Amino acid sequence: MDQQFTRTLNLAGASNFRDIGGYQGQDGKLVRWRRLFRSDHLAALTEQDTLALADIGVSRALDFRGDAERAALAYAIPNVRYHALSIEPTVVQRAKEMVLAGEQMTAPIAVSLMQDTYRAFVSHNARQYAELFEHLLEDDRPLVFHCTAGKDRTGFAAALILLSLGVPRPVVMEDYLLTNALYRRPASFNNGAPDEVLNVLWRVQEDFLEAALQAVDADHGGLGQYLERQLGVGEKERARLAELYLTEPVHKKS
């Protein structure tokens, strides 16, 4: 990792805010630092946090939260353009339905629900992820994309971006799993569920992202065809993304 940059930013009001730069992509080039950030929700940022975002030049925020989530925890950041790319939290809805039906949520059921959620990102939410890439292709002004915890909707978004830039899958998975070390789950979200269930719903597992990537391969013929046919990101757009977000590594003199 380039020593002049850090992966995470220590914000008081967001625990999962991080830079996805520095990874090696296609042709040995590196994803540019301080251009692409992923995060949990930004409604609890302090004044000092907003100054930190201004200092790194963040000018766009892309919010994957659903309508009720955005209404409950709305925010506005000075000089940052806000864009809603709504993906409703289907796991939360399914959990509520189970409670109303008198069914018990268990860890295995929660894992299955999470995998179904990730497959749905691929099949049902292509429009929102296509919009994400439209914003990325506009220019290289620093932006942050997020949902509530910055782990699922955001995690799949980060994976798509990094994969489109040629970052290898194992490295993309490592970035995805960083959430488990960073995200601080709010106590208010516990809702009395057992810890074993909460540890599924509020953390990430390789199985979750793998479910989405396997759906991309099995149902859409692989990443390249999915990007082009479902997200409108063909060869020309991928070349533009590389131009905007990849850079030659700096070789230090011995």
Record keyword descriptors for this entry.
254 residues, alpha/beta, Protein-Tyrosine Phosphatase, Chain A, 49% helix, phosphoprotein phosphatase activity, Tyr_Pase_dom, Tyr/Ser_Pase_IphP-type
Polypeptide structure, described:
With 254 residues, this protein is α/β, with parallel strands linked by helices. It has a single domain (18-246), classed as Protein tyrosine phosphatase superfamily (Protein-Tyrosine Phosphatase, Chain A, Alpha-Beta Complex). The chain has helices spanning 47-55, 67-72, 90-100, 107-124, 126-138, 153-164, 169-177, 179-182, 195-201, 206-220, 223-231, 235-245; strands at 18-19, 30-31, 36-39, 60-63, 81-84, 143-146, 246-247. The strands form two sheets. Strands 1-3-6-4-5 form a five-stranded mixed beta sheet, covered by helices on one side. The longest helix is centred in the middle third of the chain and has 18 residues, at 107-124. 35% of the residues are buried. The mean pLDDT is 93.
